[in-house]
Amino acid sequence: MKLIQKIPQVEELCSKYCISKEEQRKRENLLFEMREILAGKCGKKIIIVGPCSADREDAVIEYVYLLSELQTRVKDTFLLIPRVYTGKPRTRGDGYKGMIHRPKPSSRNDDLVSGIIAVRELHQRIIKEAGMYAADELLYPSLCSYVSDLLVYAAVGARSVEDQEHRLAASGLEIPVGMKNPSSGDISVMLNAVSAAQQSQRILVNGWEAETEGNRYAHAILRGYINIAGENVPNYYYENLMRLHDAYYRQNLRNPSVIIDCNHSNSNKQYMEQCRIAEDVFQSCRRSKSINQLVKGVMIESYLEDGAQLVGEGVYGKSITDPCLGWKRTKSLILNLQDKIA
């Protein structure tokens, strides 16, 4: 192992890229609303929506600004949370690993120090320029402290959900954390992760041994799974949701909640299917009071342009990882969902 460069101190970076007291107050108000939804005290649904990977600041900021305008039109029905994922897990360890590794996607070399700074600055800009507060993936628990004070949501991915460090880190966050089902589809693994995150835990953080309070708003995310034949299998259907409902109550977990990831294995990575899947989920909510109480929202991969491109092709606002819905289709979908729920 070769040491390359020291990373900045958490306090140093947080003080340089900070938000005002008024922006902190707005974040607290938004967190209160999210907690009310997850606790079943508010009938709104959450839509976490945005690029598969936040690859460039300008396009992401433009996207979030458009989302902020749409939020005013659907504020009585939906709480829109921009999906701004700055780290990407890779199955084989190669490929683009997100802004945290490469602030400039076309660069040939990783630069994690510059990446940490770029991620902090991006989330600060989202707050100051678009007035929104984002979701990011909890990919590296050791880096939580560098950005969690600017977020309102974090997700633990299918590859990480069985990892104890991720579960314990989630228990120490003040923001809601979604636990995805693992690639195998075993919902007991996902619910065990939720249970671990909801409990008080002893963890190591920033050179200290610390005790967490437990995250009572940790919850499930269904994203489909891969069977032994290597095929994508969806798990958003009515029957899947009823099984999850029953499993939740058998474990006696706090604030039973699930977010449905409309892409990944649920869509067989066919990004246009996200529209149909979101509509199907809300149809299940209309059919069953139990499902409606359990399902707190959906997650959609969306960017300015439809589809995906290779790194270096240079199409502004088009995903360089998984294909995404373009903005026009996304806006139409959300407005259509509002009409069907209202």
From TrEMBL:
Pathway: Metabolic intermediate biosynthesis; chorismate biosynthesis; chorismate from D-erythrose 4-phosphate and phosphoenolpyruvate: step 1/7. GO terms for cellular component: cytoplasm. It is an enzyme of class 2 (transferase). It catalyses: D-erythrose 4-phosphate + phosphoenolpyruvate + H2O = 7-phospho-2-dehydro-3-deoxy-D-arabino-heptonate + phosphate. It holds the Pfam family DAHP_synth_1. One of its GO terms (biological process) is amino acid biosynthetic process. One of its GO terms (molecular function) is 3-deoxy-7-phosphoheptulonate synthase activity. Keywords: Amino-acid biosynthesis, Aromatic amino acid biosynthesis, Transferase. InterPro entries: Aldolase_TIM, DAHP1/KDSA, DAHP_synth_1. Its EC number is 2.5.1.54. Residues 36-332 form the DAHP synthetase I/KDSA domain. Stereospecific condensation of phosphoenolpyruvate (PEP) and D-erythrose-4-phosphate (E4P) giving rise to 3-deoxy-D-arabino-heptulosonate-7-phosphate (DAHP). Belongs to the class-I DAHP synthase family. This is Phospho-2-dehydro-3-deoxyheptonate aldolase. It comes from Sporofaciens musculi. The lineage of its organism: Bacteria, Bacillati, Bacillota, Clostridia, Lachnospirales.
